Each structure stands twice: as structure tokens, then as C-alpha cells.
Amino acid sequence: MPDYYPTFLNLAGKKCVILGGGIIAQGKIAGFRDAGAVITIISPDATAGIQRAAQNGHVRWLERKYQPGDLEGALIAVAATNVWHVNREIYDEAERLGVLLNVVDDPDLCTFIAPSVVKRDPVTLAISTGGASPALARKLRETLSDHPALEWADLAGVLARARREVKRRRVAIDPDRWQCCITQELLRLAQGDREEEALEILLAQLLDNTAPGLCPRLEECSRKGCSVSPKGRVPKDRVKEKIS
Fold first, then answer.
1. What is the dihedral of CA 136, 133, 123, 112, to 10 degrees?
2. Which terminus of the chain faces fewer neighbouring Cβ atoms within 10 Å, N or C?
3. What string of DSSP letters covers 81-97?
4. Angle at CA of residue 81, ends 76 and 86, nearest 5°
């Protein structure tokens, strides 16, 4: 079994073909639609859910069997026909055209596999067992869905704004310094609808080379070299003084 390369694809406006009209095929629609893909479903029969999606304009449904050439122009495809020789024909076409293909329940014919996903907007965690055990991937997903570590996702907005500001100022900041500055204090502020205050504190810690508890060189951070608290806090009165 190969080692898969983990990645996230930008499917906005890209053609996606789903071959098959059963429950599994229906279950693929939401993820591709959320990613902005243009979805075509090819199957002589389809679930009520697929038919509704077609009626609502969310997918295009071609009410027929697979034909050679159906993958032309596609970036990605899923074969869920439950007929091995048909899936093999689809695989051969995908290989010839360079289309990414997932064949349901047949890892040997897959050029990509769909991970189990844990999402707390805007953060997405993808879990894969490399095709060894979908049941284990699901168990990990269910376990992680309620894990308190996911609360850090609530800081994504503050961190994104701080990153844009740092880039605007063209300041080089060591990645370890970012880690030192991502604190429970910032998280509590963000979760308490105090994002502006969290942003001020974060920028002060990132950009002030005299911030207590943090390395004096912004571009050369070392966790072992931090002289004080690992939380890297800046007193609030000092933050206001620096930002004003």
C-alpha cells in the first residue's frame, strides 16, 4: 500500500464527476459542493437525494451509464458504480487523462482517498489511515470532534489579521515566536467577542522586541532561550502604551 501525500485541493469552479447514483454517491455531493466544484453525476438510476439536488441545480445528472470520454475536462472523479469492470474502465480513462480518481472500496484503483474530516470553521482536520481501516478513521474523527484542542480554531480570525499586518509591515518573525504568542489568554479574549483586544496583545508580542518573556530578536526565536514565562504575556497596561 502506498504512502499518500496529504493535501487540500482548491476545487472552486472545477469539474467533478461522480459515477454512480446510490447512497455513497449522494454522500459525496455535500463535500464537493462546499468546495465550489461543478458536479456532474452519471448514473441510469439515482437516489431521491440526488434527484432533488439535480432539480435544485446543485448537480447535473446524466441519466445513463458511464461512457468513455465522461472524464474529459474533469479535475477529480469518484467511481461508485459497484461494478468492478466498469470501475476499471473509469480508472483506465482517469489514468490516461490525468484525472484524480477515487474508486469506492478499491484502494488499488485510487489515485486519491477521501479522509475523515473534523471541522471547526475555518479549521479542517483530515484523518487518513492510508486505506487500511475506514472504521479507525471514523473512530478518530468522532473522538477528536469534541476534543478541547479544537477550541484553538476560534483564534483563526485574530491570527489571520495579525499575519496580514505583519506582512504589510514586512517584518520577519520566527515561527516559534508565533507559537509562544498563541496563548490561552488570547483564546479567551477571542471567544469572549474581544477580538480587537486580542489582536492588540498579539501584535505587541510579535512586533515588540522588548516584550517580557519573549526572545529579543524577532527573527531568531528559541523556546529554550525564552527567559521568563512560556506564556509570553505582555502586561495589559504596556500593550495599550505600545499600541497607542
1. 180
2. C
3. -S-HHHHHHHHHHHHHH
4. 85
Task: Tell me the per-residue pLDDT of 128-137, one tens digit each, with 9 for 90 and over.
Answer: 888 788 899 9
Q: Identify whether residues 131 and 236 lie together within a single domain.
A: no
Residues 16 and 100 in one domain: yes
What type of residue is 168?
R
Q: Which helix (H) or strand (E) holds 104?
A: none
Domain extent for 96 = 1-114
How confident is the prediction for the chain on average, in pLDDT?
A: 88
Residues 153/123, Cβ–Cβ less than 8 Å: yes
> Structurally, how many domains does the chain consist of?
3
Query: CATH number for the domain including 124?
Result: 3.30.160
* C-beta neighbour count of 230 within 10 angstroms: 11
Which tens digit of pLDDT belongs to each residue from 213-238?
A: 777 777 777 655 555 444 444 444 44
Whether 27 and 3 map to the same domain: the answer is yes
Measure the CA–CA gap between 83 and 105, rounded to whole angstroms.
11
| 110 in the same domain as 5 | yes
pLDDT score at 107: 86
- Beta partners for 65? none
